[in-house]
Amino acid sequence: MEETTTRTIVIAALSTLTPPQISTMTTTISSLFHFHRRRLSSLLSSHTLFSLSLHHLHSLSLHQKSLLIARHLLSILSQLSHLINPTTARMPPCTATTLNDRDLDSVLLLLLLCELHQHDPESLKTLSPTDWRDSLSGYVSATMLTLSGIGCSNSEILIKYIEVVTKCKKFVDVMGCRDGKEGKEVTASVAAVVALPSVEVKQGGKECAVCKEEMRQGRDVCELPCEHRFHWMCILPWVIKRNTCPCCRHRLPTDDVYGEIERQWELLVKIGGSYI
Fold it and tell me: Would you kindly state where each structural domain of the chain is located, as residue ranges?
């Protein structure tokens, strides 16, 4: 996906938010970026912590690095998708949205290295990895107010949010295509399946789309968030193989990181597209 298209979709989705939602969004994002900033400051101020994080990055394959960035993107993307769709907010979150301290430090360091390389491609080439910390610290100090969000207006915080989502989405799209992740069927998360409501059929005559048999009056059936209903024994084998509704292809949450990014991104495209 082109970078400009990604940015347009995020802006369009943000434009659908009400003023109270915008306020909530900016407060949440500002706090999140400030937390990331504190983690980076701790990382760069400690030779030991920096060395451990850099060593961990070196031990990861390219696929593992891309997965780390994908998980980071998902945690940021969820802040918006949960606001614009109450149904999504009520569903259990993907387990991959929470990064432990080591993974968070590693992905923040990786993204900072990428950003510095983009800003000044020669800055790290002439240095050994042991000297990277000083170079990164100088770059971060020069951009501290911009990155931390301190003293920034709501619009500046949202602009920073759009930039982060756009950069991460571009990288994840490239790696997802390379690894054959795009369009792959994924299973619904166990938490999402357990959270599905059981409803009583008030009026007979409607058939289950899976087995094509009638859902009899008085019987308890499963209702998906899209409001399509199925026999429990029909829908359960379905959702352990794929996270889509058999009728409308509405996606349930999944614990597959790339699949969950695709699900939440489709939501932003739908909401943002209708606004455009």
Answer: 3-178+257-275, 190-239
CATH of the structural domain 190-239, one choice from 3.40.50.620, 3.30.40.10, 3.40.50.2000, 3.30.470.20: 3.30.40.10
Q: Alpha helices of 120-245 — where are they, by DSSP H?
A: 132-142, 144-148, 154-178, 190-194, 232-239
Residue among 193, 203, 182 at smallest CA distance from 265:
182
DSSP 96: G
Mean of the per-residue pLDDT values for the chain? 84
Neighbours of 208 (CB within 10 A): 20
d(CA 61, CA 67): 10
Tens digit of each residue's pLDDT (9 = 90 or more) over 29-43:
989 888 988 899 899
Percent helix, strand, coil in the chain, to 5, is 65, 5, 30
- Residue 214: strand pairing partners: 207
Which residue type occupies 195? Answer: A
Asked if 32 and 79 count as a contact pair (C-beta separation under 8 A), the reply is: yes
